[in-house]
């Protein structure tokens, strides 16, 4: 589902032509050569991370509902938000990992996280890979890119605040639009094209699924639709206390908010639609490596190494830290590799805000 505000790219003010960035062969070669042994995902890490995140997330959510103390309820809600955010972030791994290397993991993730939180894996699979396509990144065909640094300053707070409505939008998508579109072909076309992708580019349109993808899509969409309808029905009839439903929505909104803030600083958002080299894409992306500690919370599952991920999309999240250490140990101080490393969230938000304030 498109989670951004409806902003057209024409709202980006014109800026002087940027100098094209050539690929840095030394960095690209080092990245490939030094990480060949890191590409295999470890099933033990993936499954343990998923199960613990789900147990902590739902357990804390239940605690937030039953505790009589407002303070403890807020604390439990925050724990639930962070744990479920970590679990939901694993949808990113599903788009890159070879499923034969993690048997059953897609199914397990959908059952534990995707369906209950109403973001089944088809909402990202077939979408995120376009963001990594060599000739799509940063262009109008990239579902995960907007030139935010070139837009008006007001777009940044709106971009973040609108994410709070995500749980309501997902309930509408799966409890109402999904069943209605099953019997109304024109509506189905619109639902698939416009409301079936976790993207931030409002002009992005999905194609109709075919073959095996269609089978998976139908299965998980039906399961999520049943869950969403049951959630609403249980609340309306009083089977599920209103407090529990509100807590679920608030935690979902919190997850969407922190993810949108993380998205805000995942790139510099300075490209106006030109095809970019791999090095240019890397420099337009962001790493927040150690010693910073907080990124482990707001950019989990390897997302703190987002720029490195664009160099090495096939390296699993649990190996990105080692890949970063290896590259940092061998690349010269003048390498562009270090130019994508930043200290933390406040500086990145400030950098983007200042960029929007520059006269064009």
UniProtKB/TrEMBL annotation:
Superkingdom to which the source organism belongs: Bacteria
Keyword Transmembrane: yes
GO molecular function: oxidoreductase activity, acting on paired donors, with oxidation of a pair of donors resulting in the reduction of molecular oxygen to two molecules of water
Keyword vocabulary terms for this entry: Membrane, Transmembrane, Transmembrane helix
Domain Fatty acid desaturase: 71-338
One GO-annotated biological process of the protein: lipid biosynthetic process
One CC-aspect GO term: membrane
UniProt xrefs under Pfam families: FA_desaturase
Transmembrane residue ranges: 45-64, 70-88, 109-127, 154-178, 217-236, 242-259
Stated name of the protein: Fatty acid desaturase
Species whose genome carries this gene: Sphingomonas adhaesiva
């Amino acid at each position: 589902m498109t989670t951004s505000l409806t902003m057209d790219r024409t709202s980006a003010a014109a800026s002087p032509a940027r100098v094209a960035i050539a690929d840095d062969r030394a960095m690209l070669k080092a990245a490939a050569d030094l990480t060949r042994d890191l590409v295999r995902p470890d099933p033990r890490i993936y499954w343990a991370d998923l199960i613990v995140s789900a147990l902590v997330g739902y357990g804390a959510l239940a605690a937030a509902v039953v505790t009589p103390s407002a303070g403890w309820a807020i604390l439990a809600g925050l724990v639930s938000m962070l744990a479920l955010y970590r679990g939901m972030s694993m949808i990113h791994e599903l788009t890159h990992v070879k499923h034969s290397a993690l048997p059953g993991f897609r199914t397990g993730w959908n059952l534990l996280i995707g369906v209950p939180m109403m973001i089944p894996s088809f909402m990202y699979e077939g979408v995120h890979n376009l963001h990594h396509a060599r000739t799509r990144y940063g262009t109008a065909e990239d579902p995960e890119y907007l030139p935010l640094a070139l837009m008006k300053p007001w777009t940044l707070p709106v971009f973040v605040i609108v994410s709070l409505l995500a749980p309501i939008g997902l309930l509408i998508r799966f409890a109402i639009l999904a069943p209605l579109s099953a019997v109304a072909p024109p509506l189905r076309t619109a639902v698939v094209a416009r409301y079936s992708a976790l993207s931030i580019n409002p002009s992005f349109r999905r194609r109709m699924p075919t073959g095996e993808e269609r089978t998976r899509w139908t299965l998980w969409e039906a399961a999520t639709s049943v869950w969403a309808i049951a959630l609403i029905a249980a609340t309306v009839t009083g089977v599920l206390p209103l407090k529990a439903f509100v807590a679920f929505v608030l935690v979902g909104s919190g997850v969407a908010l922190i993810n949108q803030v993380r998205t805000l600083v995942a790139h510099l958002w300075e490209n106006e639609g030109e095809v970019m080299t791999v090095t240019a894409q890397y420099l337009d992306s962001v790493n927040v490596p150690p010693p910073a500690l907080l990124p482990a919370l707001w950019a989990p599952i390897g997302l703190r190494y987002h720029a490195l991920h664009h160099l090495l999309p096939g390296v699993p999240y649990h190996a990105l830290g080692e890949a970063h250490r290896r590259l940092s140990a061998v690349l010269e101080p003048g390498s562009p590799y270090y130019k994508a490393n930043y200290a933390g969230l406040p500086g990145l938000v400030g950098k983007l805000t200042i960029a929007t304030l520059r006269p064009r």
